[in-house]
Amino acid sequence: MNMLSRPGTRVHSVLLLCLWTGLVCLTTVSFTHAAAPRELKPATYTFSPGPEFQFEFQERLIEAVPGDILELKAGTYHLHSGLNLVTDNVTIRGAGQDKTILSFKNQRDGSFGLLASGDNLVLENFAVEDTSHNAIKVLGAENVTFRGVRTEWTDGPKTTNGAYGLYPVQCRNVLIENCIAIGAADAGIYVGQSTDVVVRGSRAEANVAGIEIENTINADVYDNVVTNNTGGLLVFDLPGLPQKNGRHVRVFRNHIFKNNLANFAPKGNMVASVPAGSGVLIMATDEVEVFENRIEDNRSFSVSVVSFLIYGKKLKDPHYDPFPEQVYIYDNTIKGGGTDPDGELGLLLKSIVGTPLPAIVYDGVTAPSQQKGEQATKTRSLTLANNGDVGFLNIDFSNLTPANIATGKYRPSGDLAPFEGTQESLQPVKLKPHGAPNLSQNTTLNVYYDAPRKLSELKLFKGNGADQQPAAGVIPYDLITTLFTDYTSKHRFIRLPPGKQISYQQAGVLEFPVGTMLIKTFAYPKDMRDSQAGERLLETRVEFLEPTGWYGYSYIWNEAQTDAELSLGGGEVEVDWIHADGQPRSTRHLVPNANQCLSCHSHHDKYVPIGPTAANLNRMFDYAHGAENQLAYLKRNDLIKDCPEPDAIERLPAFADAHSGNVNERVRAYLSVNCGHCHSPGGNARTTGLDLRYLQQDPAKIGVWKTPVAAGRGSGGRSYDIVPGAPEKSILMHRLQSNDLAARMPNIGNRIVHQEAVELIRQWISEMEATNDEAAQ
Q: Which domain range does residue 750 map to?
């Protein structure tokens, strides 16, 4: 790697974990570290394939300055873990989509290739191949460009392929141009819950869905080639998501042909219901224009316009509009389709109307307001014009019942007249130029550059810290219900700045003063049956609050257990122990890189602590002077202000203690602590609409009868997150039990199934009351 030096830098040595072998080595490498004071400026960095690329490139992503350009020379780069980027105004540029290849064929960690959240992001001229789940996901960013990028699963269409190729979600001002997406088990090019989007000049082939625009507002999709997918171009709206009721989507000048590939999506995903041979499919989205496209030889449906109700899924979202309205289809060239319909609906229509099916199929289901006559003239569901001499079919889905078919009362209509006409065209989408680099973001980078290289420099412990005895002013604490990390034990501490106090908060993490440090050391007891046998310290994570916000990184303990070394780029530690059942066990403990920490410690893309809430701290602790309630200890020592007496504060149930609450309360506490930081309105999994915080009481939001979003093979072939009374049909159970990178949850720090949690959550779902119609699902 050619690393350009910045002004005022000096060279340091760091412990390099040999990530490519999975072993902890004592090799040292040099890297530049800025000396304070400094003026950090954007630069261009060039990388070549090699065994050190994973570590070096991820460290550069962490230390990126707004305006940096990261150039990848031609060649194949072999990676075993996903990459994370959070800095704004970064460009990652390869030598060409067939020349620079990031291969994840031997991926061990992370369910993605690249996960980014920085604004003004440019990704161009490289390929991402064979990721365990999504290839490139960009979350919550503004001004995102994919140019000349290829994503592909190279072994051909398989259910085990990742779900999405290019995957911007909850983004604004997105451009996807001259890209290629091949082999995704959900959608090759997927734009979800985003605003102001252009997809042009790209090719989608051999995916379940070629291009999918979902719950998105203002999108232009044009001049693309879409072929050999199960479904070619889909414009969808799904319930239960934060951004609902997408609209204003223009689909034009695309060539959509021979999308006849057998559906290979994992069962339970929405796209698993898409019939092979679907050209253009519009579902439940308003204000959609489809014009000047060539739509050819799609064997089931050339163009179909349907409501969400046609899929027979339960609908628990009162704010979701399941009916398509103001869909305008005109000036298209459509031919050769409908010759061999697929799927339950296709086969049924074939038996009723024969083949070929008409070119444009509409389910005929309208919103209740439209069924009142006069309103229907104001808001038409569907308008057709100038599509040539093609057939039309209103299948009248509401009356498509076995009884009506048997008695001859069901009569689908081919009458085009009620739908002919014109309507006002939608305005083109206008993207804004990317903003200039904001070098004020260097605050984050300066924090990393200034980080002590050894844990001992922080003076948190007595002696060398091997026995985790806190130094003066460092407060030990514990939680009632803890985050499970592969059966590790954890030592937790708080260091407050002198004279400062914590501010009590009833909900959420306590409010700590600037200068606070939260410290957590991960360890394995050598023998879980014998507390006197000692333990192996693995890493110490330090979170600290600066005036500009929270930051965090990890220190990895050496084999001698005499100190720990800073590792911004993360790593692995091989460890073995005797488990509580007397059996020997071993694992590779994952030390997250500094950007991976944000995967959990993120609320609206800002770093936040996730453990010390008043409810989870409201317990006894064995201090040096004896046992005392932790909140009472803080009050007695004048370390917290405005805090009620502990008896007046809610106490979170203890997952492992049957006397602390009923099964529902204990499971909800476990899910809140282990999952709720991501699955919440501000968390990194907010796009799913699943909310697992303890305070959430809406059954649909905690997953009951909730359809999955972006689950891929994480659905386990199941249709709902939680099916009351049926844990074996619930996606939640599958994800907690799975060792599949694309399915297991949480997806960081979770290489071993938490069997005790699995059993209690199985009991919880089994005891949920199911109505008669639900039990039949």
A: 663-775
